[in-house]
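Contributing: when you submit paired examples, paste them exactly as shown. First protein:
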Amino acid sequence: MNFNYAIVGNGIAGYTAAKEIRKNDKEGTIVLISEEPYETYYRIKITELICEDDTTQPYVCDASWYEEHDVDKELNARVKEIIPEEKRLILENGKEITADKILLAVGASAFVPPIKGVEKKGIFALRKYEDLIQFREYVEKYDRVAVLGGGILGLEAAESLKELGKEVSIIDRSDYVMTRQLNRELGLSLNEQLKDEGYSVYLNKNTECFLGDDKVEGIQFDDGTSIEVDAVLMSMGVRPNLELVKDTAIEINRGILVNEKMETSVEGIYAAGDVVEVHDQVLGLWTASMEMGKVAGSNLSGVEATYDVPKLFTKLDMGDVQIFSVGAIGEGDVYKYDEGVEHHRLFVKDGIVTGAILYGNTKAMGKVKNYVYQQKAIADVQEEVYPFTKA
């Protein structure tokens, strides 16, 4: 089968690219290939669905969208080989597809470290809808769930599990959670707040092995201590899916290397989403994948567009825990505002605000975000929203 455009991957990057191609090219033939048996869905909603009674697939669009926009789809179909020079894809089901141009939007997989016993029943990583269903079915029978990883996704999963009525343990190798978004001072405060919220929090813990026979029954740490658990949710980041392009002419590093047009080292082959490395960054963010897909789709269909790496920020709403973080955290001079449950910080280098944390109340996040993005002088904003004082 030959198409004008072949898109490998039906996540938000692939779907957005297909939309953009069809907007610019009303006649070109498009095929969208996905390993999963589903149309595009909101992968970012999987964590919050842990605690929902209705775990129905959160689709991005109706199945009719593909037919209405004349987009062929090959679902439940894995591409086992790509021959870049020939623009040829060989599927596991025996089909072969050639295309004038190809987009690789094959995403990333949850990182599961090679810990002894990781193959036991009851140990999960959430990345796909099927992962959610299997996890929910398993934990319905048990009470004690450990989340391995204290990043923002791990904390969001912990909150959903707590709402489901589980006894939740949060485990991290550092001495405080959210190390990328918080400085140590506020990270240690968050540790204590999580404990007050009813979570068991274990810090400075390296998992040596998972205990139990056929199914997980506990976690053994390398300091000799252990805890009893019924299930484990791994939340330790993701890794781009590079297996398809290894040992091909498509250049890779941590991800598939692309230029600002999302084109790979092979002319006519593009990549977008969690699998790519662009401007020396692997982003792994839903909004970034959507924008990459749009840029890739434009260029695939002959409309020039370029991708700029977004300015990143983080917001956590976890019960009474409200946190906003932006820019370079923990560097330079610190300016503080503390009042009741509010603990806000500005980080300043050479008189310019380069990072900020709002802890306890995030209402001012729009203004504070602009302090960082617009490189505001601390002298101009020190008293604007809160009376910050130099630490």
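Second protein:
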Amino acid sequence: MLDNLKPQPADKILALMQSFRDDPRADKIDLGVGVYKDAEGRTPVMRAVRTAGKRLWETEQTKSYVGLLGDPAYGDALRDLILGDSVDPGQVSAAATPGGTGALRQGFELIRLAAPDAKIWLSDPTWPNHPSIIRYLGIEMGEYRYFDNATCTVDFEGMKEDLNAVAAGDVVVLHGCCHNPTGANLTLAQWGEVADILTDRGAIPFIDIAYQGFGDGLDADAAGTRLIASRMPQTLIAASCSKNFGIYRERTGLLMAITHDAKLKTVAQGTLAFLNRQNFSFPPDHGARLVTTILTDPDLRADWQAELEEVRAGMLRLRTQLADELRQRSNSDRFDFIAHHRGMFSRIGATPEQVEQMRKTNGIYMVGDSRMNIAGLNARTVPILAQAILDAGA
């Protein structure tokens, strides 16, 4: 049997990580891996997470399974963080999952089970794992225009034109905030226009929200998701706690299905439990309990929000510094978009050849499409990157 297996294509980002590790240069810069780092290059444990972990260690009485859907308190806490009061909680089914990727996988499985002929539409570009999972599941896939490579801004007219061709019953995947890989976000007014188009076409939105709090703040980053959820008859949401709680290795995610029909809600809840059972049975619980402890304790929540705001503000400072350095050195405003992008990533419009030149000459590692992780920078390395970008002819 095993001799029938064929080598699988290497994940480009994981391969880039390995190349960075193998590079002996002391002044190399890692802008590839999608993990938050502080100015010292560390991915720290947040203060509230450390306190919640100690509290959990002291009070936890069992390591027995939780339910198939996870601890209900976790689902309630994360639902409220993301949706606020935009929908009635009684309309929301929720299932804990192994990370945001697990939530996406379960959501795609739900789509295949409920509507096997539906096409799933992705932004061009999008996070590479989106199309990878969809292809693996054998689901038909389409793309809608999203990013203008010339201006490094949202191609909203192209997006609207493509979404107006979506068929009834199709699913449209939307990035809730901090678009990965581009960093270019929709305005709230544009979210409203997208909701109008999806309603008119009879399409189902599936929102991937993995960076809430990294862009313009917790509520601002959730505004588009809340607008869609409040206006659409049905919505799917995949959420991740990896970034905003810094608990990457705990694999803490949530899949939500929102419907305005109470009977459908009961069926959806049962289906989410069924899908979890078929895939991994009971979801991991440690990260979920950390999140629940933080979100339900006023002092811990306040400390978490304060540290998250420090992280967000730090990335904005790096964006502004890089845009200013590029403006000064190039005597041009063509890189000002970097200061307007949000989240960890920006796609800067460099060619694969220019990206490779920066790697060879300067030891700067970014993805071949020129997606770079802003959080991989610090005040010292920003001028180095700015000059390398210009020297490469980007």
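If you have annotations for the second protein, write them as plain sentences, like these:
The two ends are 48 Å apart (CA to CA).
The chain is about 45% helix and 15% strand.
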